[in-house]
Design a protein that fits this description.
Helix content: 40-55%
Order of helices and strands: HHHHHEEEHHHH
CATH topology of the largest domain: minor pseudopilin epsh fold
Radius of gyration: 18 Å
Low-confidence stretches: 199-219
Mean pLDDT: 89
Number of helices: 9
Shape: globular
Number of strands: 3
Number of domains: 2
CATH superfamily of the largest domain: Iron/manganese superoxide dismutase, C-terminal domain
Strand content: 5-15%
CATH architecture of the largest domain: 3-Layer(bab) Sandwich
Bound molecules: manganese (II) ion
Strand order of the largest sheet: 2-1-3
Distance between the termini: 44 Å
Structural class: mainly alpha
Largest sheet: 3 strands, antiparallel
Length: 219
């Protein structure tokens, strides 16, 4: 049983003018699908065959770097594509807004943090918005295939910082790519990831005992 590539949830031209049809088509068919093909070749006949991608990432991380790299890159690309949506005006839900406010103060501050981390990241990698185990949200980058799942973080959104994600559209101007990316974030996807997280949460009892600064989102 092989790991089938996930379909792109929109057409190749759906993210224009922010990401061109050419870039998206190449990114999906030449990068994502190749990682998917490689991971299937690498796990064929091994104990990893038949596992879900997340399980492969977790179990290969300390021992099988080739498998880990291709599994993580395959997972990241699918997550990246699903984190984007065609540029129709999308409201950020109150649930997500409250969580952003708790951790960053405002969406504008989150955006600044996201841009700062992305611009300071040297070389290829990924910028993540994650939920930490204490329920707070944070932004950080990873290099190569280092992955939030290994740090008990729940990924909410990711931006691909490899140049193939933007070179055709923006040349080496990562900042222009980030501005475009920000216009087409699928905030519903962020919300879905937040709501399905099975993480430890402060109980409502804690809220009354400590004044509730860290658990306002339970209200
Ligand atoms: Mn990529």
């Amino acid at each position: 049983m092989s790991l089938k590539p996930k379909p792109l949830p929109y057409s190749f031209d759906a993210l224009e003018p922010y990401i061109s049809k050419k870039t998206l088509e190449l990114h999906y068919t030449k990068n994502y699908k190749v990682y998917n093909k490689k991971i299937n070749e690498l796990i064929s006949g091994t104990s990893f065959e038949g596992m879900e991608l997340e399980e492969i990432i977790l179990k290969s991380a300390s021992s099988e770097m080739d498998i880990f790299n291709n599994a993580a890159q395959s997972w990241n690309h699918d997550f990246y594509f699903r984190g984007l949506a065609p540029p129709v005006r999308q409201e950020i839900s109150l649930t997500v807004l409250n969580r952003i406010h708790d951790s960053f103060g405002s969406v504008e501050e989150l955006k600044k943090e996201f841009f700062k981390n992305s611009m300071n990241h040297f070389g290829s990698g990924w910028t993540w918005i994650v939920e930490n185990i204490d329920g707070s949200l944070s932004v950080h980058t990873t290099s190569n295939a280092e992955h939030p799942l290994l740090h008990h973080e729940v990924p909410l959104l990711v931006c691909d910082l490899w140049e193939h994600a933007y070179y055709l559209d923006c040349y080496n101007e990562r900042t222009n790519y980030l501005s475009n990316f920000w216009q087409i974030i699928n905030w519903n996807f962020v919300e879905d990831n937040l709501l399905k997280t099975p993480l430890l949460r402060p109980s409502t009892g804690d809220k009354f005992m400590d004044g509730g600064a860290s658990s306002d989102y339970l209200a």
